[in-house]
Each structure stands twice: as structure tokens, then as C-alpha cells.
Design a protein that fits this description.
- The protein is of the alpha/beta class and 290 residues long.
- The chain has a single domain, classed as Rossmann fold.
- It is 36% helix and 15% strand.
- Strands 3-2-1-4-5-7-6 form a 7-stranded mixed sheet, sandwiched between helices.
- Strand 2, helix 3 and strand 3 form a beta-alpha-beta unit.
- Helix 3 runs antiparallel to helix 9 and helix 4 crosses helix 5.
- The radius of gyration is 19 Å and the shape is globular.
- The protein starts with 5 loop residues before the first strand and ends in a 16-residue tail after the last strand.
Amino acid sequence: MSEQWRLMHVHAHPDDESSKGAASTARYVAEGVDVHVVTCTGGERGDVLNPSFDHPGILDNPELITQIRREEMDRAREILGVRQDWLGWVDSGWPEGNPKPPLPEGCFALVPLEEAAEPLVRLIREFKPHVLTTYDENGGYPHPDHIKCHEVSVYAFEAAADPERYPDAGEPWQVAKLYYHFGWSHARVTAIHEAMLRHGLESPYADRLAKWEINEEHEKRVTTRVPCSDYFEVRDQALLAHATQIDPDGFWFAVPREVQAEAWPTEDFELVSSTVETTLPEDDLFAGLR
């Protein structure tokens, strides 16, 4: 019997696993890959972003929103068919103001890196993933928890393989490949925008594209495009499971799935480190391993 491949995604908050890479996750699960989602924080300081979500007292009760977001994560996990663990750190929130206020004491972004990475090192050594994905150095967008998630993931990726580091956190394990997830590139948004116009539909991206400052070097960093349009529906179901965060009549669903599939049928990644030989560009996170 051939070895079962193992894939680990490290995310900052509940819902990130559904808004970033969920269709490729569903594809790999369907292929028999064992997928493990790690969620760094509980999303305790997240706002309720769905205007149709109504729960008495949620805005004034952090314990209640924590409970609800955990229940949402349970539903999304079942839809995606993954296993999932919490690192147990507390959401840092999105600092607003000019200048921005200090981050809350004890939040994830302020935990010393060596301490913050220990539970992830432990999970890596326990699960033994062949491939690990996380965010780039900008966090995908500059939320303090996303940037910290990047730092913790890269640190733990390296530390998990070193027998001298965290000797009480399990036997060392070398993850073969490390990727950064890439989301809304200018090329992707342009392709979907143009596809909407071809179909005689109003594009939700016209204003966004008019203001976009293209970073060509960043756009060139994508190395790996995973075809996964057959699983866009699963992705959408997982998104809707996060009812506090996702408006069913909002941005995420403004483009018909068939238009998305025509314009951009992949989810995209940057290969950052690999212990195996592979040829770029890739169409599979396990290229060079299978």
C-alpha cells in the first residue's frame, strides 16, 4: 500500500482556511491526502462582518463570539474533510487609528516567537506533513496575526527538523516543501473582471482595478497553480459555514462559479523551500514527491 500524503495549512483565524486555498484543500482530500489545518488564534477580536447575522449580545460578549466561531470552524472542518487543531493563542485584533494603538497585552502578535512556535513544532512532529503552507512575509495582508502566523510557520518549519531545538516536543521531522499561499493577484482579478464583462455581467472589481498599484515582482513570485475549479462549490460551502464573517449576498459570491472556473481555475502558491527536485512552474503541491 502506498504512503498517504500529508498536507498542513497554518492559518491565523477561523475562516482563513475557507477563504484561502479551500478548493485545493478539497481537491487533495478527495484524492486521499490527509490534510491538517492549524488555526493560530480563536478569532476572539474579530468583528461580525455579515450584516444578516443576528445573535443577541454577541457584540458585547467576547466569550460568546469565541464559542460561535469555534462552532463555525467545526462546520467548515466537516465540509472540507480535514482535521484541525488550535494553537491556542488570542486574536490580536485589527488596530485602528492614526497613530495605531498598542496591541492588547497577551495577544498572539506579542507572544515571543520561540514560545509562539512551540505548539506548532509539536504538531508538525506529530502529524509529519510532507508539505506545509502559510502566508508570505506580509501576511497576505498586514493584519498583525497574519504576519505573526508567517513568522511562526517559517520558524517552526525550520525548528521541527532540528533535534537540538524543542527536544521535548517530539521526534524531529523535516517537512519536504514549504509554500506561501497567494490570493488576489492583479492578474487573477483582471482575468475574472474581463470574464464578467464578456458574459455581459457587471464586474465587482472595476473600482478596485482602477486603484490597484501593480507590484510586478510580487506577481512573478507564484510558482505553483493547482487546478481545483471542480471544488469551488465545496469552498463556498465552507465559507458560508463562517456565518459571522461571510455575507451570503456579499463580495465572495458576486461572481458566478462557472465564470470563476473559466477565468481562473487554480489556486496559487509560491514554493519557498524544497528538499526534493521539482520543475517550475508546478501544478501540484506534491510535485517531486509523488
